[in-house]
Amino acid sequence: MAEISTIARPYASALFSLAKEKKCLAGWSKMLGLLSVVVSDPQAKAFISNSKILDSEREKVILELCKSNIDKNIENLIKLLIENKRLLVLPEIAKFYEELKDADEGVVEAHIIMAEKPTKKIVDDLIKSLEKRFNKKIEGKVEINKSILGGTKIIVGDTVIDASVRGQLDNLAYTLKA
Amino acid sequence: MQLSTSEISELIKNRIKDFSSSSEARTQGTVVSVTDGIVRIHGLSNVMSGEMIEFPGNTFGLALNLERDSVGAVVLGDYEHITEGDTCKCTGKILEVPVGPELLGRVVDALGMPIDGKGPIKTKLTDKIEKVAPGVIDRQSVSQPVQTGLKSVDSMVPIGRGQRELIIGDRQTGKTAVAVDAIINQKGQDMKCVYVAIGQKASTIMNVVKKLEENGAMEYTTVVSASASDSAALQFLAPYAGCTMGEFYRDRGEDALIVYDDLTKQAIAYRQISLLLRRPPGREAYPGDVFYIHSRLLERAARVNAEYVDKFTKGKVKGKTGSLTALPVIETAAGDVSAFVPTNVISITDGQIFLESDLFNAGIRPAINAGISVSRVGGAAQTKVIKKLGGGVRLALAQYRELAAFAQFASDLDEATRKQLDRGRMFTELMKQAQYAPLSVSNMAVTLLTANNGYFDDVPTEKVLAFESALHGFMSSKYKKVMDDIESSLELSEENEKKVVKAIEDFKATNTY
Questions:
Q1: Do B68 and A6 touch (CB under 8 A)?
Q2: What pLDDT score was predicted for residue B398?
Q3: Domain match, A17 and A84 both
Q4: Residue B67 CB contacts under 8 Å (≥ 6 apart), including other chains
Q5: Which residue in chain A has the smallest CA separation from B27?
Q6: Subunit contact B26:A174, Cβ cutoff 8 A
Q7: For residue B298, pLDDT beyond 60
Q8: For residue A1, what pLDDT is reported?
Q9: B161 belongs to the catalytic site
Q10: I need a labelling partner for B78 at 20 to 30 A (CA). Which of B45, B58, B372, B433 fits?
Q11: A80 shares its domain with A121
Q12: Each residue of A15-48: pLDDT tens digit?
C-alpha cells in the first residue's frame, strides 16, 4: 500500500504550480483549508466512503456544501479527486500545499510550547533568534501546556529544541538509569 | 557486586554534578507502523543510513530504509511496547559496540552487553560496528600460519593469519567442532579469538562456552551470541559486532581469529528484515545485496602491514603486523553447494573445508573431503616442517578415493594398486582425530614422518591411531629435547630427522602399541 503522503504529494505540487501561475496562492490555501475541514467531518467521511452512493451524487453534495466559497479550479479538483476516489486524501493535500506555499514564501511555522503565557517580548525575542538559526522567516504559534513544567519546547518541522524542565528531568532520569 | 549506600549516593551526586542542562535540538519523527520488529517512521528528515534511533522506553533502532516519505527502521531488542504514534528521535550516532581486552572470557550479545551473569564489562573504548575494510596499500600477504591442531586441516588445507577459510557442510557434519578445535589450539599462540554464534540454540552455545572453559580457551576468547530466540536484527548485526571486537586486535598489531557460526542464518535473518522492509526479493527470496552483506564482512578479515598499525596506533606500536583470520561457517542442505548463499561465500573466501555426511557417518572425523577442500593462500603460510612432510597426504588421499571406487569392481588387483589402496586406507585412518584433542606441530611432524617412511605399513589399520598416540607418549618421555627443538624452530633439521627416525624404530621394536 502506498502511503497517503506519496499519493497526496503530486496533487499538492500540481495545485501549487497552478496557483502560482494564477497568482492566487492565499485564496486557494483558504479554500483547501475549508475543504479539508469538510472532508474530515465524521459524517462527511461516512458519506464519502459509502459505496452505495453514486459518484455523481457525491460530487453534487460536496459542491453544494462549499459552493459559495470555491472557484472553478478547486471545483475541478474535487471532481478529479472523486473520479480517482481520493477525496479523503484532501487534508494531506492541503498540508503539503501549505508546506510548499511556506517554502516558497520562505516562512516556517514554529510551534512554541510553554508552561505559562509568555509576554509578547519573550515571544518576539524567541522568534528573532529562531529566524537567525533557521535562516528563514518564522511564524510563531504559541501553545500553553502545563505538563512541560517550565522552560520551552520549540518544534520546527522535524527539529525539536527541547529546553523544557520536563525534558531535562527525563534526561536526568535516563542518565541515572544508564 | 555489593554497593554500599554511600557509594550509591556518591555515584548519583557525581552524575547530577556532571549532568549538563543545556537544551538539545534533535530531529523527531512519529511511528506510523510496527510490524515484526520493523518500524516505519514519518519525519526524521535528517536521519543517516545506519543511524541509531531512540524510541520511548530506552529502546534503540537502526535506520535501514530512507524513503521519500518515511524511514524504515529495525528495532534492536524488544519492540512490543512501541506503538503507532510514538515519537522517536535521531541520536546522530552510528551503532557502536564496546571493544578491548576486557571482553576476553566473556559472553556478550550482539550489542556487546554481557549475558553471562559475571557483572558489567568495564571497557574503555567503543567502536562502530560497520567499518570499511583496509585498502590495498594497508595490506600484506599472508605468511604466518594459524595452527588448528587438526592433522587433516594443517597438512592438507593450511590456514594463514589473515586468511578467510570457509567451513562448509550439511548439518551434523562437525563444522562447529572444527572451528572450536581451532580456537582451543590457539592457547599460548598469541592469538585472541572471537566466536560469533548466530541463530543457534542457546543450549548449543552454552555447550560451546562450557567446552571452551574446560579447555582453558575462554581466557583469550570472546563469545558473541545472537541465539535463535533473539530478534532477526540482532542475528544480522552479531557478525559485524564480533568483527569490530576482532579488529581491535588487528589494528593494534596483534593476531585474532574469528569464527562466524553460521553465516547462512545471518543471511536468513537479513532476508526476513529485507522482506519486512519491502525490499524486492531476488533469488531464493534473498534481497539483491545478500552478497554484499557477506563480502563486506569477510573483507575486514585481513593481514595489515606494519605501517598501517604504526599509523593507527599513532606510533605506539612499531614494526608489527596485525591480522584477523576468519573462519566463516556455512550450512548446506543435502550437500547442495550450488545454492545461493554457499556459492556467494565460496567465491568470497580464500578456500574452503568441505565436510561430508557420508564420511562423518563412516566414522571419519573430522569428515573432511580431501578432494574438494582447498586453501588458496595458506600454502605460503604453512609451517616448514608440515609443508615438507605433509605434501603427499592430500595426493595420496585423493588418489585413494578414486582408486577405491574402481577397485570395487576388480576381483584381483596388482601389487602396486593394492599397496596404494592400503596406504590410502592407512592415511584415511590416520587423519581421524578426536574432538578437543589438538596436536602440537612436533607431534604432527612425527606422525607424518612415520607415515611417509612407511612405518605404518605393517600396522593393522584399526591399530593405527593407538600406535600414533603411544608413539607420541614415547617421544615426549624419551626424546623431549628433539620434540622441543621441532616445536620451537618449526623446522626439521636433517640431524633431528635422523633422531626421530631412530626413535620410531626404537618404539616399534618395543611392540607396546
A1: yes
A2: 82
A3: yes
A4: none
A5: A159
A6: no
A7: yes
A8: 43
A9: no
A10: B45
A11: no
A12: 999 998 988 888 898 899 888 988 889 998 898 8
Is the distance from CB of B307 to CB of B140 less than 8 angstroms? no
Q: Helix crossing, B480-489 with B494-510: angle to 10°?
A: 140
Instruction: Identify the burial level of B411 via C-beta atoms within 10 angstroms of its C-beta, where 0-12 means exposed, 13-18 middle and 19 or more buried.
Output: exposed
In total, chain B counts a number of residues equal to 513
User: Do B499 and B446 contact (CB within 8 A), yes or no?
Assistant: no
pLDDT digits (tens, 9 = 90+) for A134-144: 888 888 889 99
Q: What residues contact residue B47 under an 8 Å CB cut-off, 6+ apart?
A: B27, B29, B53, B63, B66, B71, B90
Look at B23 and A158 and tell me if their CB atoms are within 8 Å: no
Closest to B92 (Cα-Cα) out of B53, B129, B119: B53
- Measured CA to CA, the distance from residue B59 to residue B75 in angstroms comes to 8
**A46 and A29 together in one domain:** yes
Is B28 within 8 Å of A160 when comparing Cβ atoms?
Answer: yes
State how far residue B128 is from chain A, nearest Cα, in angstroms.
20
CA angle B339–B342–B343, rounded 5-degree value? 80
Of B15-19, B97-101, B178-182, B370-374, least confident by mean pLDDT is: B15-19
Give the residue from A56, A157, A175, A52 showing the smallest Cα distance to B11: A175
Buried/exposed B310-344: b ≥16 CB within 10 Å, e otherwise: bebeeeebeeebbbbbbbbbbbbeeeeeeeebbeb
Predicted TM-score of the model (pTM): 0.87
Number of compact structural domains in chain A:
2
Query: Is there a contact between B243 and B271 (Cβ–Cβ < 8 Å)?
Result: no
Per the CB < 8 A criterion, the answer to whether B95 and B75 are in contact is: no
Using H for helix, E for strand and C for coil, what is the string for A5-52?
HHHHHHHHHHHHHHHHHHCCHHHHHHHHHHHHHHHHCHHHHHHHHCCC
The DSSP annotation for B89-110 comes to EEEEEE-EEEESGGGTT-EE-T
- Residue finishing a domain among A83, A102, A121: A102
**Is B221 strand, coil or helix?**
strand
Give the whole-angstrom CA distance, residue B300 versus residue B128: 13
Q: Which amino acid is at B431?
A: M
Residues of B with CB under 8 A from a CB of A: 12, 15-16, 19, 21, 23-29, 32, 42-46, 58, 68-70, 89
Domain shared by A95 and A142, yes or no = no
The sign of the torsion formed by the CA atoms of A92, A95, A101, A102 equals negative
CB-nearest partner of A159 from B16, B27, B58: B27
The three three-digit cell numbers of residue B374, written as one number: 582447498
| Cα–Cα distance for residue pair A97/A5, rounded to 1 Å | 12
A60 and A141 co-located in one domain = no
Using one digit for the tens of pLDDT, what is the confidence trace for B230-263?
A: 999 999 999 999 999 999 999 999 999 999 999 9
| Angstrom distances, CA of residue A157 to CA of A11, A109, A164, B54, B172 | 21, 7, 18, 18, 56
Same domain, A141 and A160: yes
* A120 in the same domain as A41: no
Region of A146 on the Ramachandran plot (φ > 0 left; ψ -120 to 50 alpha; else beta): alpha
**Of A58, A80, A102, which one is at a domain's C-terminal end?**
A102
Phi-psi sector, B285: left (phi>0), alpha (psi -120 to 50), beta: left
Report the pLDDT averaged over residues B18-24.
Answer: 67
CATH number where A41 lies: 1.10.520.20
Do A62 and A139 lie in one domain? The reply is no
Please name the residue of chain A whose CA is at the shortest distance from the CA of residue B11. Answer: A176
Phi-psi region of B41 (alpha: psi -120 to 50; beta: other; left: phi over 0): beta
Domain range for A143 is 107-177
**Which positions in chain A have a beta carbon within 8 angstroms of at least one beta carbon in chain B?**
3, 5-6, 9, 151, 155, 157-163, 167-168, 171-172, 174-177
